[in-house]
Amino acid sequence: MRKLVSKILLKSKIGSIIIRILIFIWSLLPYKLSVFLMGKLILFISRFLKKEREIMEAQIKYVINYLKKTNSTSSLAKITSQKEIENLIDNIFFNAGKMVSESLSIKKILSSVNLSDPNSKNALVREEKSLIEISDIKKGAIVLSAHFSCFELLAAYYVKRGISLTVVGRAPNYKIIDTLVKDIRASYGTHTLWREQKGSSKQLLRSLKNNHFIAVLIDQDFNLENEFVPFFGLEAAYAVGPIKLAVKRNIPIFCTWIKRNKDGTHHTLSKKITYDTEDTNVIYNILLQYSKIMEEVISNNPSEWIWWHRRWRRRPNINYKINKDSLMDSKEYVDWLNSLN
User: Fold this and answer.
1) pLDDT of residue 8
2) What percent of the chain has pLDDT over 90?
């Protein structure tokens, strides 16, 4: 059933037309209603995603145990029962649905923002002082973010703030998703650069020369040039390409994220990452700062992070190009994580 739906909606011209029609109809709904309904829809679909739920449960249990060992007082550390874990997984999918609808409603959301009074009670996105300071930077910078809450809205808000932004990422598996993501981002002024596309390195350098901010989501395990840094006490692979570029050019690096509030509004947050170009472990120390920030953010807002990605799948000191069979499949990964609990 899953493969059939994928084939019809994501791999055919008819599917592309159907999706665009559905998006148009969705745009006609009142904002809050559309967000709620999409949340419920994704939650319903998640009932059939057994593999994803198993991955999420294994990762959440591992992190809870780690936080308790470190005497954390975060909201995630306070979870004690299987029922609470199941409720958290449901909330993660519900929030993922909200994120989808919010991403389709970015223009509506940003229309509520008045930059002369960005924190007014009517604004659906609010900011803290550091983002105002970031927007005053007149040269390029690297912005490290994560698949947390409505990250597409975060990028759009940067552009609203007058920051020229290029988002670097992995191309989606399906052409229709590729096109939709690019169209959504282009509609609010963000340039998308897929790592796989020809000449991407030159385009990245050109963006920096034009004083663009380069935004990258580095909280997932990809087959790239990586460095391993502890993430909730367990070594995790982080892509280092954009960070090496920043260090080479000695340009600012920021960690930034967006938080969804209980009333449905959003709050942008950011922290500057400090580094010394003479530090022999500069890349590791930059990543360690990012990792610790995201640990705190996720452990206090666990339902906002996308937990179904196999975050610790790659392990240190293994050449996966040579040892392809060493890369764990989903079952092996879940069994390995459960053995740590």
Assistant:
1) 47
2) 53
Q: Outline where 11-124 has alpha helix (H).
A: 13-27, 31-46, 50-69, 82-104, 106-110
Question: The pTM is what?
Answer: 0.90
Strands in 68-184 per DSSP E: 125-127, 141-145, 165-169
How far is it, in rounded angstroms, from Cα 262 to Cα 337?
32
- Strands in 165-169's sheet, in edge-to-edge order, are 125-127, 266-273, 253-260, 141-145, 213-217, 165-169, 191-194
Q: How many residues does the chain have?
A: 341
Contacts with 186 (C-beta within 8 Å, 6 or more apart), sequence order: 192
Encoding tokens for residue 179? 């096109």
Dist. CA 202–CA 206, nearest whole Å: 6
Strand partners, 215: 143, 167
User: Cα separation of 123 and 103, whole Å?
Assistant: 16
| pLDDT score recorded for residue 136 | 66
CA distances from 154 to 144, 159, 160 (A): 12, 9, 10
Q: Could you tell me if 306 and 151 are in contact, meaning their C-beta atoms sit under 8 angstroms apart? A: no
In which residue ranges of the chain is pLDDT below 70? 1-16, 128-136, 138, 173
230 residue type, one letter: P
Digit-coded pLDDT (tens) for 252-297: 999 999 999 888 889 888 999 999 999 999 999 999 999 999 999 9
Residue 231 CA to residue 228 CA, distance in Å, equals 9
Residues 131 and 113 sit within 8 Å (Cβ to Cβ): no
Please give the pLDDT value at position 10: 53
> For residue 144, what pLDDT is reported?
95
Side chain identity at residue 30, one-letter code: P
Both tokens of residue 2? Answer: 């899953």
> Bridge partners of 217?
145
Residue 243 vs residues 163, 220, 246, 279: alpha-carbon distances, Å:
19, 15, 5, 14
Chain mean position to CA 148: 5
User: Helices 2-10 and 175-187: crossing angle, nearest 10°?
Assistant: 50
